[in-house]
Amino acid sequence: MRLSPFRKKSFVGLDLGSHAIKAVQLERTATGWRVTRHSTTPTPEGAIKDGVVIDGDAVTESIRRLLKSGHIHATCANIGVAGATVVVRNVRIPKMPEATLRKSIRFEAGRYVPTSVEDSFIEFEILGYPDDGQMDVLIVAAPKDVVESRVKACQAAGLEVEVVDLEPFASYRALVETDAEHDWAEKTVAIVDIGAHTTSVSVVSKGVFSMTRAIPQGGSTLTGALKQYFKLTDADAESGKTQLDFRELLSDAPQENPPLRVLQPHVDELIREIRRSLNYYQSQQTDAGQPNPVTQVLLSGGSAKMNGLAGYMSQKLALEVTPLGVFDNPRFLVTEDEGHGLEMSVASGLAMRAFARAA
């Protein structure tokens, strides 16, 4: 679909997840943004796997249904990509003009991209010049099948894709960058987004992404563990998970709670992977002679809603862990009580790209 040059563009932020598809529409206000429309629909089972849209027709139909049920009228979508195959690396290379780097970026990226660079979209941003002979560059690489399959599904639903962003960048934009009441943007923080099948860990130091990693574990791991152990249906396992409180495990004499005991080793494994990610970041900083330790973990994503999870993670990581949703950002206005919006940060951050120049 091609847009008429005389037709006014209208935007929606579209988060295409393996478990759910979320849409957010915003309008600019004097102090921030107003959420005018938002909606969520389940992703057809198996339709999106490892970030790639496998069943394009099913995803397209879900997008159409989502827009209709949410009364969202848009001509353009801003979408995101993430996952283990998407590479974000902060590298130091010999100083060169930007035009020269653009010509050689595929060679530079080839050192860090696990798949063929010819099958990837490569972008970069020059972050600075630490000394006369070096430059710091942020390299981003995403497989073409991830990007193109998502674009195709949106176009078939009648949406022209304006921007393809990284989901961690979108979360940071909505949760941290625009929050004037906290000083997280001036610190080194870790954003941990716990999705259904994948947990994203990003370390951002004073607005610069230093590391992004995808852990192949999320809320569906816990739901599956309850389902298998207690022989439950998907719905009952999901419902049971929401009734548990991980703070019970922090008691000096915790009461016996079989469902919590089933989930504890899976949550502990996720925390170990998060700690391993933070330790890797810290080792890189130590080698570079720049301490910059992570001072706080910001917890988002739909699976971050689990009761007491932040407190449990905080004790295990020995760091302050704060659950943070987009509606906790005072610059976002909502017409009614929408909760914290823990699961809406990516879609909201994508929607904000429509106002990039104004913001």
Features:
alpha/beta, five-stranded mixed sheet, six-stranded mixed sheet, 33% helix, Nucleotidyltransferase, domain 5, 359 residues
Describe the structure.
The protein has 359 residues and is α/β, with parallel strands linked by helices. It has a domain at 183-325: 2-Layer Sandwich (Nucleotidyltransferase, domain 5), CATH 3.30.420. 33% of the residues lie in helices and 28% in strands. It contains nine helices and 16 strands. It has helices at 56-69, 98-109, 144-156, 167-177, 219-230, 234-242, 258-287, 309-317, 345-352; strands spanning 11-16, 20-28, 33-42, 48-49, 52-53, 76-81, 87-94, 120-128, 134-143, 160-166, 188-194, 199-205, 208-215, 296-300, 320-323, 332-333. A six-stranded mixed sheet has the order 10-6-1-2-3-16. Strands 13-12-11-14-15 form a five-stranded mixed sheet, sandwiched between helices. Strands 7-9-8 form a three-stranded antiparallel sheet. α5 (219-230) packs across α6 (234-242). The longest helix is centred in the C-terminal third of the chain and has 30 residues, at 258-287. The chain is globular, with a radius of gyration of 21 Å. It starts with 10 loop residues before the first strand and ends in a 7-residue tail after the last helix.
